[in-house]
Amino acid sequence: MSSKTQSILSYLGILWLVAYFGGKQKRDSLSTYHLRQGLGLLVVAILVNLMLNIIIMLVPTLSTPLSLISVVFLILMIFGIINAANEVRKPLPLIGKLFENQFPFLDSSKD
Hints:
Elements: H1 3-9, H2 15-22, H3 29-58, H4 63-67, H5 69-85
Helix pairs in contact: 1-2, 1-3, 1-5, 3-5
């Protein structure tokens, strides 16, 4: 699997696992960067959706406006895919800087 393919897959939710395990032997700094960004996006999206579901259960009338927040994560995913396809290291808007140095287990798999 090429570095570019790994980078793109890292933004597609569960396909992050395919990029992580499938490209372990050929991982370079670009794919590691996008794996970090993609995993960070996935973690934040899951946490925010859990909080939103709790709020919606408590106040059902807020379901429509709060569900629109999920569109933000779709837009961030698209930004990440575009950056990966162009092979640039650019952090995701809003949350990308938080994950540039996180998830050290990604570094340990480099040859």
